[in-house]
Amino acid sequence: MSLRPAAPLLAPSLLSADFTRLGEELRMIESAGARVVHVDVMDGRFVPNITIGLPVVEGLRKATALPLDCHLMILEPLRYAADFVKAGADWVSIHQEADPHLHRTLAAIRQAGGKAGVVLNPGTPIETLVDLVGDFDFVLLMSVNPGFGGQSFIPRVLDKVKRLNALRAARGVPFFIQVDGGVSLKNAAELVRAGADCLVAGNAVFKAEDPKAAVAALLREMGAGRQA
Ligand SMILES: O=C(CO)[C@H](O)[C@H](O)COP(=O)(O)O
Ligand SMILES: [Co+2]
Questions:
Q1: pLDDT grade, residue 226 (50/70/90)?
Q2: What is the pLDDT of residue 154?
Q3: 148: CB partners within 8 A, 6+ apart
Q4: What is the mean pLDDT of residues 63-92?
Q5: d(CA 123, CA 107)
Q6: Are strands 9-12 and 91-95 parallel, antiparallel or unpaired?
Q7: Is 17 left (phi over 0), alpha (psi -120 to 50) or beta?
Q8: For a Cys-Cys bond, which of 4, 41, 104, 193 suits 225, CB 3.0-4.6 Å?
Q9: Is 180 assigned a catalytic role?
Q10: What is the mean pLDDT of the chain?
Q11: Sorting pLDDT into bands at 50, 70 and 90, what band is 1?
Q12: Given ligand 1 and candidates 144, 153, 183, which is best to mutate, with the most ligand atoms within 8 Å of its CB?
C-alpha cells in the first residue's frame, strides 16, 4: 500500500485571484490541469487579515466540481469546521495553534463528511502531531507565516517535510502532506522530492504573466520531483 496519492496535486490559492471574476479564475485553473482549489479563510483574530467566509464557499461550490480545500485560519475552529463541509468544502484544515481540542474538531470534520487536516505554522514542531496520527487525513505545513499571500518561502520547512515524510513511513499511516506559502518553480520539485503530495500556490499562479502556463509549469516540476 502506497502512503502517498498516485500523483502530486497542485492547489491554486484563490487568495491571489481576481475576486471580481472568481468563476473565470476557477475555469482557468481547471482547464490548466489543477485538481484542487485552495480557499484561505481568515478571521482577523488568529491572523491579521479577513478574507472568505461560508457564503463565498457556497458560491464556489456551485461554480466548480473541483474539490474545495478550505484552510481555516480562525480561532475556535470547532464552531465552524462542520459548517464549511456543509457549505461544500471537501477538505478542511485547522491550525494546531488555534485549537486546544484538535481531536474533537478533526472528528467533527470527518463526521460531516470532509477530509480533515491539521496545519502547522513554521515554528510548530511536527512532534505535536504524533498522538493524532490516524485522526487526520492530511497535514499542511506552512512555509510562510499565515495571513497573506505573496510572501517568501521559509527554506527550513523543506527539512520539516522530510521529517514528516519519515514519520509517516515509520507509522505506516497514509496521510498526505501539503505545503503552503511561497511555493514556486524554484522549490516545487524539491518539495515533492522531500515528500510533499500537494502544493498550494497563490502568487506563483494568479500573479504570473500567463497563469495557465504557470499551472502547467508547476505541475511539470512537481512530476519531475516525484520521479527523482
Ligand atoms: O495560507 C496562505 C496564507 O496564509 C496562502 O494559502 C498562501 O500564502 C498562498 O499564497 P502564496 O503562494 O502567494 O504564498
Ligand atoms: Co492557505
A1: confident
A2: 98
A3: 49
A4: 98
A5: 25
A6: unpaired
A7: beta
A8: 193
A9: yes
A10: 96
A11: low
A12: 144
pLDDT tens column, 163-220: 999 999 999 999 999 999 999 999 999 999 999 999 999 999 999 999 999 999 999 9
Dist. CA 61 → ligand 1 center (Å): 21
Please indicate, yes or no, if residue 56 is contained in any of the structural domains: yes
Is the pLDDT reported for residue 3 higher than 80? no
**How many separate domains does the chain show?**
1
Residue showing cell 470527518: 110
Atom from ligand 1 closest to the CA of residue 71:
1
2 in a domain, yes or no? no
Between the alpha carbon of residue 110 and those of residues 28, 39, 81, 103, 128, the distances in Å are: 30, 18, 10, 11, 20
Task: Find how far residue 107's CA is from the centre of its chain.
Answer: 19
Q: Is residue 3 part of a domain?
A: no
18 is in an annotated binding site: no
Tell me how far apart the alpha carbons of residues 82 and 61 are, in angstroms, rounded to a whole number.
15
Chain centroid to Cα 115, Å, comes to 12
Would 1 be classed as within a structural domain?
Answer: no
Query: What band does 2 get if pLDDT is binned at 50, 70 and 90?
Result: low
Give φ, ψ of 32 to 5 degrees.
-80, -15
